[in-house]
Amino acid sequence: MKIKIPIGSYAVTLRRPIAILIILCIFSLVPISLWLMCFDKTDNTDEMAGQEALPKVKQRDLNSNTYKLKMIALGCRLYAEKNQSDFPASLDELIKNGHVESSEILFCINKEDSSKERFIYCPGLNEKSPEDFILAAVPRPENGKREVVYVDGHAATINGGEFQKAVKEQKWKIPSSK
Length: 178
Description:
The model is unreliable at 42-51 (pLDDT under 50). It is elongated and about 80 Å long. A hairpin with a 6-residue loop joins β1 and β2 (116-118). It is built from five helices and six strands; from the N terminus they run ααααββββββα. It folds into two domains: 8-37; 60-170. The longest helix is centred in the first third of the chain and has 29 residues, at 10-38. The strands form two sheets. A four-stranded antiparallel β-sheet has the order 3-4-5-6, with helices on both faces. By secondary structure, the protein is an alpha+beta fold.
């Protein structure tokens, strides 16, 4: 003898509460997840005061030549906003006008002997200059390469031949090396 359970009886009544519980769990997780994503419980406003435009970097990277070159490019852009799109005539103007936080930004560290030298800079550029023009660079190559920053703000390491070609094209006046 077969037992028939009609639709809508015991089997269906057990599934309905389980389905309701699952739906309630899912809908309660969504607001909790959104709340966790939107509200950061750490308060680091004191640490970040005045540094809204600075990229987040590790402390050891703050002294890297690449970081400093990018800060020089950012300073030049800030300077240009107030000076009809022209970049400064010299890097000293970035300090005078408060567009870089410290004069230390203007000095690179030679990896071979840990000496400090001033970055070289190409005056006469502006925001309309070609993006692939070099804005500033380390003064001496290391292993045949130089770290540079371009007008558009990106930094790169290029070989000596590329640098010399750019210098000639842009008519740089490079100070004599030691």
